[in-house]
Amino acid sequence: MTQLNRSSDFSNSPNVDDIVSAIEEDIVLGRLNPKERLVEEDLIERFDCKRHVVRQALFQLDAIGLVERIKNRGAFVKAYTPKEVEDLYAMRELLETAGAESIPLPAPASMIEELTNIQNEHRDAVEKHDLRRVFRLNIAFHRTLFSATGNAYLVECINDFAQKAHAIRFMAITEAESLEQACAEHFAMIDAIKRQDRELLCTLCREHLIPSKQRYLSIAKFRHN
Fold it and tell me: Residue 33 to residues 2, 79, 141, 172, 174: CA-CA distances in angstroms?
């Protein structure tokens, strides 16, 4: 069983959202592996909380696609089949391309400034290999980027499918080369927005999705063989 941070991470007794967030990080950062079982008793001890709180957290993780609950067996970190990965990323490409096409150009100076500030912090986290900050700042960058569309329904769909992919992204977010590539691509997106180059922005958003998908599929192929 993977040894994880205990409840001392929280100043107060953790709630459902705290537990979901902590397990989500464990999955994305590779502390929990695909198909690894999440034992309720271990989680109750780790988070120092009641069983119903843990069960609600596992239910929520199942609903967002990070955990799979199997009757009479328990909860396991979601392991996607190659077909599921291809389908999920096809949806992400459709949604995020639509998002890039909907961002107003010229973009407001305040939006460009906010993206730049987030990305400067993201670069600092990458340089320090602070993976927890990298993960959270990456989310902040993309949510800020697509929030500029002004379409709340599109943004919600983009965020939902991006979250489902967290169980796939663990390889890309733990490799230094992949982190540096993602960082460079973020800055390129900002530059494309400044130059009002929508075609380049759409291309960058599509290509940004490829590395994590390819790494997961290569591992799945290796395991299958």
Answer: 9, 9, 26, 14, 13
Q: What percentage of the chain has pLDDT greater than the value 70? A: 91
The predicted-structure confidence for 13-24, as pLDDT tens digits, reads as follows 789 999 999 999
Segments in the chain forming alpha helices (H): 16-28, 40-47, 51-63, 82-102, 109-127, 131-147, 152-164, 170-174, 176-194, 198-207, 210-224
Residue whose entry in the numeric block shows the structure tokens 């979601």: 78
Q: What is the DSSP string of 62-111?
A: HHTTSEEEETTTEEEE----HHHHHHHHHHHHHHHHHHHHHS-SSPPHHH
| Tens digit of each residue's pLDDT (9 = 90 or more) over 188-217 | 999 999 999 999 999 999 999 998 898 888
Residue of 74, 22, 28 lying closest to 49 (CA atoms): 22
